[in-house]
Amino acid sequence: MPQQCARSEYLVGEAQILRALGHPTRLELLEALHQGELSPSQFARRRREPVSNVTYHFRLLEKMGWIELVRTTPVGGSVEHFYRRIERVLASWRPAILDEGGWIETKEAMRVASEAIASAEARAGERLRNSGEEGAIVITSLLGVPSPVQISALA
């Protein structure tokens, strides 16, 4: 039977996840790692910023258990570290420019996805009850909110 965790323990974990995902650099990094392995120096070059600015984000995502070190390569007098996103972590972030019809379609797609997740959870609960396994807490999120940035400001 799955262990029940205290609501406060769950909320602390959820807050840590939201904090980790609350930075655009980390969202961009998770998306980039979806394409394959990447080092902090490669990511820093893509962003045209010092490697010291992005290394922190790699360390935090590694600490969260969302990315892992896959190899190291000697470069000059230092070592370049290459990471990949762990398969059990699904993250996708992309801004979308929508009209009213696109927003209605997006809300419907999110509703359907939410119902599919609820169904998967119900089926998983049944399997866990039958197997006696513990299972794992998985935080799922579907978020669609208008951005405060106006399109005209991007031009």
Task: Walk me through the structure.
With 155 residues, this protein is mainly alpha-helical. It folds into 2 domains: 7-85, Winged helix-like DNA-binding domain superfamily/Winged helix DNA-binding domain (Arc Repressor Mutant, subunit A, Orthogonal Bundle); 100-143, no CATH class. The chain contains 6 helices and 2 strands; from the N terminus they run ααααββαα. The protein has helices spanning 7-21, 24-34, 40-47, 51-63, 100-131, 151-154; strands at 67-75, 78-85. The protein has a two-stranded antiparallel sheet.
Helix and strand arrangement:
Blueprint (H helix, E strand, L loop, with lengths): L6 H15 L2 H11 L5 H8 L3 H13 L3 E9 L2 E8 L14 H32 L19 H4 L1
Antiparallel strand pairs: 1-2
Helix pairs in contact: 3-4
Unreliable sequence segments = none
Strand ordering within the main sheet: 1-2
For the sheet with most strands, the description reads: 2 strands, antiparallel
CATH architecture classification name of the largest domain: Orthogonal Bundle
Radius of gyration: 19 Å
Number of strands: 2
State the end-to-end CA separation.
Answer: 55 Å
Classification by helices and strands: mainly alpha
What is the name of the CATH superfamily of the largest domain?
Winged helix-like DNA-binding domain superfamily/Winged helix DNA-binding domain
What name does CATH use for the topology of the largest domain? Arc Repressor Mutant, subunit A
